[in-house]
């Protein structure tokens, strides 16, 4: 039996597939991969108040990836001098991840690049349509999150759900 899609459903599917094919993130931003940028933002903005920095577990939860994936990224960023590991002063068994001064500078560059991209989109769409798009995308996210609570009903799940709390880019 063939599934019949309404014209609106076809239009949504076509738009969705076009977006999925597009490279929404450049291969690098200021010389850093999008995954590195997301991790840097999560380190800076994903920590709990009064915390000396997030743990690998905290970061893996924010990014929706495994701890070994985060550890590998941290190793790469540490090798570039952007992050450092610090022993928690209250519990020496816990390691906290913090940005170095260079890491803070990179966050500024990445933030400027993101702001410029969003500014260009807002100028292209206009203020009203940009707000409308943001509201619609928020509704889509809620819908997909609700659908994903039952994996058998999920529709077109994304492979990289990213860090929704950390300026995902």
From TrEMBL:
<feature type="domain" description="HTH marR-type">
    <location>
        <begin position="1"/>
        <end position="142"/>
    </location>
</feature>
<keyword id="KW-0238">DNA-binding</keyword>
<dbReference type="GO" id="GO:0006950">
    <property type="term" value="P:response to stress"/>
</dbReference>
<dbReference type="GO" id="GO:0003700">
    <property type="term" value="F:DNA-binding transcription factor activity"/>
</dbReference>
<dbReference type="InterPro" id="IPR036390">
    <property type="entry name" value="WH_DNA-bd_sf"/>
</dbReference>
<dbReference type="GO" id="GO:0003677">
    <property type="term" value="F:DNA binding"/>
</dbReference>
<dbReference type="InterPro" id="IPR011991">
    <property type="entry name" value="ArsR-like_HTH"/>
</dbReference>
<dbReference type="Pfam" id="PF01047">
    <property type="entry name" value="MarR"/>
</dbReference>
<dbReference type="InterPro" id="IPR000835">
    <property type="entry name" value="HTH_MarR-typ"/>
</dbReference>
<dbReference type="InterPro" id="IPR036388">
    <property type="entry name" value="WH-like_DNA-bd_sf"/>
</dbReference>
<protein>
    <submittedName>
        <fullName>DNA-binding transcriptional regulator, MarR family</fullName>
    </submittedName>
</protein>
<dbReference type="InterPro" id="IPR039422">
    <property type="entry name" value="MarR/SlyA-like"/>
</dbReference>
């Amino acid at each position: 039996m063939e599934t019949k899609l309404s014209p609106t459903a076809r239009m949504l599917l076509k738009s969705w597939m076009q977006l999925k094919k597009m490279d929404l993130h450049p291969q690098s931003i200021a010389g850093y991969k999008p995954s590195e940028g997301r991790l840097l933002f999560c380190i800076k903005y994903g920590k709990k108040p009064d915390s000396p920095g997030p743990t690998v577990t905290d970061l893996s939860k924010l990014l929706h990836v495994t701890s070994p994936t985060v550890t590998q990224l941290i190793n790469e960023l540490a090798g570039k001098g952007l992050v450092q590991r610090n022993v928690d002063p209250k519990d020496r068994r816990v390691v906290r991840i913090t940005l170095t001064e260079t890491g803070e500078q990179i966050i500024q560059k990445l933030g400027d690049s993101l702001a410029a991209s969003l500014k260009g989109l807002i100028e292209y769409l206009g203020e009203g349509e940009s707000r409308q798009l943001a509201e619609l995308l928020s509704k889509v996210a809620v819908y997909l999150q609700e659908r994903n609570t039952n994996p058998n009903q999920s529709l077109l799940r994304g492979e990289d759900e990213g860090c929704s709390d950390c300026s995902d880019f």
